[in-house]
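Quick one, tokens below. Sequence please?
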């Protein structure tokens, strides 16, 4: 704690010292016609200039999304301070932001980072990674969001905003991409006015790619891609009323993500790895890297999701009333080998494969009412109500087959004698009332005060059948229910140093309800876990220091109470296998600094990026029944100490009116813990991307040559533990291709 207070003091001094000479540049008049872009966001439920919002927000524009080839959270995470994304499979996604993360994918738990698509909450961890295309922007709000967003969240919120129909003129777009590993992508949209008051839009995207990992045991390719999505919108508008009706359908059908046993380096005993990296994998993939896998299960992931929503907005003289009604449904079916090898990590544990198979169906209804108004020219406020019901029926089974096979052997009713089978049927009902007021005390000072009352109730039916494995050790069934509620507060004081520079101090609280653990060993483990809470103190700077230089910074300190953590580690060091456990691990804290900058070096050259530093630690932890019950002083999971991003854009105008644009992007993510075990370390990695685009004179046609991970770095996107060994999922190798866009 003393170390962190010292760190906070040093960083605060650095920010103030840095800002003083830069503030002196404000009077300098830029000589370029080009100036910094004004970014409008809706992070506080009304349209505001990003530079005036007293909140740490990173906004990715539609242009940056397209030029970076972003299509899922994997691509977003490396471009945002404090954010990480890892996936055991496409059906089990883990988002972490400023040290807050959740890796329990059961029916009765929630994510610490909430994802919203067009103001609609995406409830399950299997659904927090939607296809990202045809977007206006992505807003990542860092720190607890316990006031204005539908679902109270302790770590942060990701707000995905789609482009709405064009009500002024008809337009369309067709895009196509070809790349290595057989990449083929095609998409498009058409939008325009249908009558005086009606406009519509329909868009689609389909992407396929061959696998780049060679499974030498099954003699097939893995780590492929096959995704399709279609969306439609219909909008009505008149002088006081706007209605936007939306529908979408997403589908994913891919092979196994290729789990690979690895040596990340035991902190105490290098010889540890000689005994715990499976020899069968080493023999089958001798001399090869992550492009070789040997998992014995012919795994797959099949996902389908669809939803409809209606956003109704009445614009009265006294204020704006918004109603958002949405229904979503999803099905996730996936089967994956857990060990990445035909043989056990420990020879004494005589099995050939451990197959994890999950099928879940989620139905979700949400309703939000918001009122945005002003008392006078100086006082503006937002108030509202939120309601949701979510039901998830989830079946999971773990199959232990002594003879490796080329297909899943998990039997849904547990009657093969080898399968541990478990089912959860959970219903969550949530209510919330919220409000926030911004009071401009004078020309310089603005005071913000907000609060939210949240109530969650969960009712779960459990059923388990114990096979001869070790995950479920008791056959049982029961029903449990519990509720959690709290009031969270936000207060902020902002000071306008000059016309283009603002500083703020914010106090904010967040809340995540308790829940029920996935795959409990026995009936005694079905008791509810407690809620999780966070408290954040933040000093921020928003500044356009000249016409060509922007610097935003945030210095924060966050305390977490009752952290909910799932582990699958061994009960004792050197144990043959592990068990799932979800528990309130105790408390933790994190201090850090986030700096984001944009510099228009010349009319045609722009340099931008961020630097983020995080110092985190567990405190007062007690994790009974695990090999490492005391985590005091250790870093939080999925919390790299250092992350940074450098983005360089250069534009070359041509005499014909056409333009050539180039982009170079470099990203670094530091080492981070993947699990509670000290040897489960996800190593640091660097990624380098580049893109060159030619655009014709009337901006209707462009051709891009692009490459990602140009250095072909072998980097790990997710790690987890099995027994006393570590298994990894690797990120994509070097990819390159050609993209064409035609707009009409």
């Amino acid at each position: 704690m003393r170390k962190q207070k010292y760190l906070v003091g040093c960083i605060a001094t650095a920010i103030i010292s840095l800002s003083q000479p830069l503030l002196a540049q404000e009077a300098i008049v830029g000589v370029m016609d080009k100036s910094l872009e004004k970014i409008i966001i809706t992070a506080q439920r009304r349209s505001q200039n990003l530079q005036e919002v007293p909140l740490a927000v990173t906004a990715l524009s539609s242009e940056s999304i397209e030029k970076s080839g972003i299509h899922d959270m994997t691509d977003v995470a490396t471009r945002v301070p404090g954010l990480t994304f890892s996936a055991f499979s496409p059906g089990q996604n883990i988002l972490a932001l400023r040290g807050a993360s959740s890796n329990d994918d059961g029916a009765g738990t929630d994510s610490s980072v909430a994802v919203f698509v067009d103001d609609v909450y995406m409830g399950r961890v299997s659904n927090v990674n939607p296809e990202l295309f045809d977007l206006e922007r992505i807003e990542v709000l860092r720190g607890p969001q316990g006031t204005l967003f539908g679902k109270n969240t302790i770590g942060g919120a990701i707000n995905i905003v789609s482009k709405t129909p064009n009500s002024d003129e008809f337009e369309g777009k067709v895009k196509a991409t070809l790349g290595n590993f057989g990449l083929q992508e095609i998409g498009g949209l058409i939008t325009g006015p249908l009558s005086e008051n009606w406009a519509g839009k329909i868009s689609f995207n389909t992407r396929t790619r061959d696998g780049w990992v060679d499974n030498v045991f099954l003699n097939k390719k893995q780590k492929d891609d096959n995704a399709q999505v279609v969306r439609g919108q219909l909008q009505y508008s008149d002088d006081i009323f706007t209605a936007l009706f939306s529908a979408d359908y997403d589908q994913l059908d891919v092979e196994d993500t290729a789990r690979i046993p690895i040596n990340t380096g035991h902190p105490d005993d290098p010889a540890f790895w000689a005994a715990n990296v499976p020899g069968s994998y080493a023999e089958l993939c001798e001399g090869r890297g992550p492009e070789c896998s040997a998992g014995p299960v012919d795994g797959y992931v099949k996902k389908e999701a669809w939803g409809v929503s209606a956003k109704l907005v009445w614009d009265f003289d006294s204020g704006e009333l918004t109603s958002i009604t949405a229904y979503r449904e999803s099905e996730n079916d996936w089967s994956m080998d857990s060990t990445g090898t035909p043989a056990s990590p420990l020879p004494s544990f005589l099995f050939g494969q451990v197959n994890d198979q999950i099928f879940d169906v989620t139905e979700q209804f949400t309703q939000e009412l918001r009122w945005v108004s002003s008392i006078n020219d100086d006082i503006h406020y937002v108030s509202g109500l939120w309601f949701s019901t979510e039901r998830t029926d989830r079946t999971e089974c773990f199959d232990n087959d002594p003879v490796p096979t080329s297909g899943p052997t998990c039997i849904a009713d547990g009657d093969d004698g080898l399968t541990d089978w478990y089912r959860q049927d959970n219903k969550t009902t949530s209510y919330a009332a919220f409000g926030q007021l911004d009071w401009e005390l004078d020309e310089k000072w603005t005071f913000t005060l907000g609060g939210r009352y949240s109530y969650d109730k969960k009712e779960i039916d459990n059923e388990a059948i114990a096979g001869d494995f070790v995950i479920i050790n008791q056959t049982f069934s029961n029903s449990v229910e519990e509720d959690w509620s709290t009031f969270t507060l936000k207060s902020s004081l902002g000071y306008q140093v000059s016309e283009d520079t603002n500083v703020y101090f914010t106090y904010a609280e967040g809340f995540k309800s308790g829940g029920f653990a996935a795959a409990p060993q026995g009936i005694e483990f079905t008791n509810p876990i407690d809620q999780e809470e966070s408290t954040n103190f933040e000093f921020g700077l928003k500044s356009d220091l000249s016409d060509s230089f922007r610097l935003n910074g945030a210095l924060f300190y966050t305390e977490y109470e009752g952290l909910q953590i799932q582990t699958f580690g061994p009960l004792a060091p050197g144990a043959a296998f592990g068990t799932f456990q979800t528990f309130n691990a105790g408390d933790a804290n994190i201090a850090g600094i986030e700096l984001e900058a944009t510099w228009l070096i010349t009319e045609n050259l722009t340099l931008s990026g961020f630097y983020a530093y995080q110092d985190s630690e567990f405190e007062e932890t007690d994790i009974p029944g695990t090999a490492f019950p005391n985590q005091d002083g250790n870093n939080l999971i999925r919390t790299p100490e250092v992350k940074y991003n450098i983005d360089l854009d250069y534009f070359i105008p041509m005499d014909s009116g056409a333009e050539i644009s180039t982009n170079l992007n470099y990203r670094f993510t530091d080492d981070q813990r993947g699990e509670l075990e000290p040897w489960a370390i996800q190593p640091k990695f660097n990624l380098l991307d580049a893109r060159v685009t030619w655009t014709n004179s009337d901006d209707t046609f462009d051709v891009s040559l692009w490459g990602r991970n140009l250095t072909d770095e072998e980097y790990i996107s997710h790690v987890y533990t099995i027994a006393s060994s570590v298994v990894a999922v690797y990120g994509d190798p070097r990819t390159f291709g050609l993209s064409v866009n035609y707009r009409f």
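The longest strand covers residues 379-401. The radius of gyration is 26 Å.
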